[in-house]
């Protein structure tokens, strides 16, 4: 393969997968099939990508269909994460479509003996001087036309000429979902399919000592490999029943391995850690001008993805090949991890994506795929479907790490921040399959000869990645130091959860900004603006202040208003939030206002939906959620013990998109998490007159803070 | 595990099945009748993803034994639309784009349809109370409430629907602001 043209470097996904036909095809029946390498996992990204293709090709949106991602046929775009789908896949698709359009128009010009400049496209039909020519993309796109590598970038349609992109378009997947048509992986039924269930150990660290003799029907297959235990049966109900019988007879040796649930700070500060500098800009003169110094510590507990659907997978083990169906966010990495874990050639493994429920990060999807493969290995040639139980989903899927952020800042005599230090303690967030050179799939640790999963990596030590995502404040501060303390033991398995460290870091920074403003005798909004020069940052804050009615907010006992702001990762979308909190009997978040600048927008309603959803989920994390455990195992196993916000509890949410013409697209799915938590914390502090720094902000925390206050 | 004859009426059709009558109704609907709409979420009746209408009342099917559904009328989300015409609630979910991942959607549609048959003009608070047993992890609650009010013919109720603030909101959209 010749190296891609240097101009394609701006399109990393296309440069890595340059063959145009791997991105799009003109299918019989007048449709266009696009093949993004990013998966749909409930955020509507496929709809936005279809809009991008329709726009660039000049075809109706209804003509565009999206092919499910498969390692066999789709371009490898890595993991669908980090709010990068529109940025990476969108830009690659746009350029691939633009190049396809150039090729097709050249072919049309050739046939018509006309100049390309005389031609136009209307819904895929080729016009010459405004008149139909009888030619269309479908008549022109003969075999092989798109089987060529992308060349140097060609101009794409400027947003001011967009008619499909840039406007709200209804989600392509919702008609199936409101009518109950099979669409999720959980609905997949293959011919001859059997059903498997895994019997997980009763604790985080447990060894299978012996199996009794469960009274099982003759057609049930029991699979045991070390401490990995599972069953395969003809129906899911039979598999579940068999798994329960097997679990009853199994004898385990349990080792207590978990930290003290009631002392997360002690755990985070005492565990061995590597200390890595993240940002250091020193100005000794400025630091020396500090006349007031404040220090505070903020924490979050372990948080669960708690997907609505327990993880599911289907696999078939054939002679010489393995096929898996998974709702993983990274089917290519999963393929490689399955191959590495089972000592297969990756070329023997195919992983097909099918939709699951919203995951919000790295949940149990990949692990379920390995479970299915291990069980399918026992019944070659037959597909096996594995469904996790709710309890296993809550306790065996990776969690978002507990964190501690210690902030220290100095103000000069004019109330300006002159120095800031932030230390972040956390387990790693980058624990997806294959990261750090390990397959990182759950069952591998349980197989005979398996070893414990190594602690999760945390990505490059920057303010954009891992636990230190957003740990570098976006404010103008002359003397600044940020340090990451990544734990080197991992008693509780951690990995990516929506927004990674940004949720706590922004909560901490924005809470601290209010505390510093109070110290300086300044209004919280004015104090922030005095430390911001980026006009887009100023704009979202001013917008949310204006439309939330911040200036005229009533002062009432037990009610508070708070603000929070961040630019996600320090380099992506801007978001400012205002919260209204009532705290008479319990903590109620009543209203949220958000202003968001995510650059150029493909689907405005899609962006609003993402920001609304992020705001509600962040509220649930901020005031409600906390994984609990004893010294052996996780104990928050159901919606009773891991409650999330309900219909009667969710705040009213208003979102405004701040237009940013000409600015590059950024993701919208994670920008609300930090600012909303911060706004709630600041509103609660105002409502009760005491600062709370430990999430979740529950009634019990309020009472404790008031008692200690 | 006893195989017995089980008589169910689902979406207006009578079925005679040979299966274990102690199975959860959800398993029978999905595995025996091939209905994908009711979805497994927790198995404990705590999330609402598996809701169906049994004799007019929305309830979880994951913790409801199949034998108890004999002699009742069971309606799943598939039974709400006929000949390509969507139920008002289904159409309203599309109009409001009231979903993200959509895994909990069919349970919510069913719960909302059951609500509107007994209370055709609910307030936003009544909608929230009726859907309190349906969890949504994506945070689309405000849109769902707006959709149910829209299905009830209350287009004006949309703004009040977006949360539990309990106060009417001034129009908050302008320019690119959508809600």
Summarize the structure.
Chain A is of the alpha+beta class. The model of chain A has no long low-confidence stretch (mean pLDDT 96).
Please describe what this structure looks like.
The complex is a heterodimer of chains A (709) and B (179). Chain A is α+β, with helices and mostly antiparallel strands. In chain A, 28% of the residues lie in helices and 22% in strands. Chain A contains 17 helices and 26 strands. In chain A, strands 9-10-7-18-15-16-17 form a seven-stranded mixed sheet. Chain A has a five-stranded mixed sheet with strand order 12-22-21-20-13, with helices on both faces. In chain A, strands 23-24-25-26 form a four-stranded mixed sheet. In chain A, strand 15 (312-318) and strand 16 form a beta hairpin. In chain A, helix 2 (45-57) packs parallel to helix 3, helix 12 (502-520) packs across helix 16 and helix 15 (604-623) packs across helix 16. Chain A is globular. The model of chain A has no long low-confidence stretch (mean pLDDT 96). Chain B is of the alpha+beta class and 179 residues long. Chain B is 29% helix and 13% strand. Chain B has six helices and five strands. Chain B has helices at residues 25-32, 88-95, 105-118, 124-130, 141-151, 158-161; strands at 4-10, 13-19, 52-54, 57-59, 73-75. A five-stranded mixed sheet of chain B has the order 2-1-5-3-4, covered by helices on one side. In chain B, strand 3 and strand 4 (57-59) form a beta hairpin. In chain B, helix 2 (88-95) packs across helix 5. Chain B is globular, with a radius of gyration of 17 Å. The relative contact order of chain B is 0.13. Classes of the chains: A alpha+beta (709), B alpha+beta (179).
């Amino acid at each position: 393969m010749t190296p891609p043209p240097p101009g394609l470097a701006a399109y990393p996904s296309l440069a890595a997968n340059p063959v145009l036909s791997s991105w799009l095809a003109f299918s019989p029946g007048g449709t266009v099939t696009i093949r993004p390498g990013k998966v749909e996992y409930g955020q509507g990204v496929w709809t936005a990508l279809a809009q991008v293709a329709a726009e660039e090709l000049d075809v109706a949106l209804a003509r565009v269909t999206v092919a499910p991602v498969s390692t066999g046929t789709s371009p490898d775009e890595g993991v669908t994460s980090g709010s990068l789908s529109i940025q990476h896949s969108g830009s690659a698709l746009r350029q691939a479509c633009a190049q396809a359009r150039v090729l097709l128009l050249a072919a049309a010009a050739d046939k018509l003996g006309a100049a390309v400049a005389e031609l136009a496209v209307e819904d895929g039909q080729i016009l010459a001087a405004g008149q139909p020519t009888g030619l269309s993309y479908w008549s022109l796109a003969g075999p092989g036309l798109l089987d060529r590598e992308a060349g140097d970038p060609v101009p794409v349609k400027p947003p001011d000429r967009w008619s499909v992109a840039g406007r709200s378009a209804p989600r392509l997947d919702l008609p199936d979902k409101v009518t109950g048509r099979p669409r999720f992986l959980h609905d997949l039924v293959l011919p001859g399919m059997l059903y498997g269930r895994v019997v997980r150990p009763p604790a985080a660290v447990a060894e299978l000592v012996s199996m009794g003799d469960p009274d099982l029907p003759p057609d049930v297959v029991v699979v045991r490999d070390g401490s990995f235990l599972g069953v395969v049966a003809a129906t899911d109900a039979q598999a579940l029943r068999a798994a329960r019988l097997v679990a009853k007879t199994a004898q385990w040796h349990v080792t207590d391995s978990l930290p003290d649930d009631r002392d997360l700070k002690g755990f985070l500060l005492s565990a061995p850690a590597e200390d890595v500098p993240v940002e250091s800009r020193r100005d000794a003169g400025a630091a020396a001008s500090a006349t007031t110094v404040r220090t505070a510590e903020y924490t979050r507990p372990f948080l669960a993805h708690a997907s609505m659907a327990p993880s599911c997978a289907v696999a078939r083990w054939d002679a010489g090949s393995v096929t898996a169906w998974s709702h993983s966010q990274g089917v290519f990495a999963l393929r490689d991890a399955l191959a590495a874990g089972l000592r297969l050639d990756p070329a023997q493994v195919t992983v097909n994506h099918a939709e699951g429920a919203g995951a919000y990060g790295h949940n149990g999807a990949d692990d379920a795929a390995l479970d299915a493969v291990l069980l399918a290995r026992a019944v070659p040639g037959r597909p096996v479907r594995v469904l996790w139980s709710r309890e296993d989903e809550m306790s065996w899927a990776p969690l978002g790490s507990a964190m501690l952020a210690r902030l220290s800042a100095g103000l000069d005599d004019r109330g300006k921040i002159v120095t800031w230090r932030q230390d972040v303690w956390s387990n790693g967030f980058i624990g997806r399959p294959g990261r750090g050179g390990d397959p990182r799939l759950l069952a591998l640790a349980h197989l005979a000869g398996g070893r414990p999963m190594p602690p999760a990596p945390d990505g490059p030590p920057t303010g954009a990645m891992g636990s230190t995502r957003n740990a570098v404040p976006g404010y103008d501060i002359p003397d600044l130091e940020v340090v990451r303390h990544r734990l080197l033991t991992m008693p509780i398995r951690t990995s990516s959860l929506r927004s990674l460290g940004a949720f706590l870091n922004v909560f901490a920074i924005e809470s601290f900004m209010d505390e510093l403003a109070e110290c300086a005798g300044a209004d919280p909004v004015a104090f922030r603006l005095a430390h911001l020069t980026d006009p887009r940052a100023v704009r979202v804050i001013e917008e949310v202040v204006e439309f939330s009615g911040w200036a005229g907010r009533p002062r009432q006992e037990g009610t508070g208003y708070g603000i929070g702001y961040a630019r996600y990762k320090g380099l992506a979308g801007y978001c400012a939030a205002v919260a209204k909190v009532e705290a008479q009997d319990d903590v109620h978040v009543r209203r949220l206002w958000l202003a968001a600048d995510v650059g150029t927008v493909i689907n405005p309603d899609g962006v609003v939906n993402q920001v609304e959803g992020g705001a509600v989920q962040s509220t649930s994390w901020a005031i409600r959620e906390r994984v609990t455990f004893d010294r052996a195992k996780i104990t928050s196993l159901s919606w009773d013990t891991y409650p999330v916000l309900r219909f009667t509890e969710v705040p009213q949410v208003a979102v405004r998109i701040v237009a940013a013409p000409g600015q590059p697209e950024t993701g919208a799915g994670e920008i609300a998490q930090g600012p909303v938590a911060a706004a709630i914390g600041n509103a609660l502090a105002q409502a009760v007159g005491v600062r709370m720094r430990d999430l979740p902000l529950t009634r019990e925390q309020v009472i404790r803070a008031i008692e200690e206050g | 595990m006893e195989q017995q004859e089980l008589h169910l009426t689902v979406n207006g059709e009578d079925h005679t099945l040979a299966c274990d009558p102690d199975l959860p109704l959800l398993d029978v609907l999905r595995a025996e009748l091939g209905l994908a709409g009711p979805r497994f979420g927790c198995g404990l009746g705590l999330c609402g993803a598996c809701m169906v209408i049994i004799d007019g009342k929305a309830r979880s099917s994951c913790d409801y034994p199949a034998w108890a559904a004999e002699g009742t009328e069971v309606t799943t989300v598939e039974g709400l639309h006929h000949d390509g015409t969507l139920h008002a609630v289904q159409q309203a979910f599309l109009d409001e784009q009231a979903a993200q991942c959509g895994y909990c959607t069919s349970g919510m549609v069913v719960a909302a349809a059951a609500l509107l048959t007994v209370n055709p003009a609910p307030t936003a608070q009544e909608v929230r109370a009726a859907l309190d047993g349906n969890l949504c992890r994506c945070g689309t609650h405000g849109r769902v409430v707006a959709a149910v009010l829209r299905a009830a013919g209350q287009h004006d109720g949309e703004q009040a629907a977006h949360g539990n603030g309990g106060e009417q909101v001034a129009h908050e959209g302008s320019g690119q602001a959508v809600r």
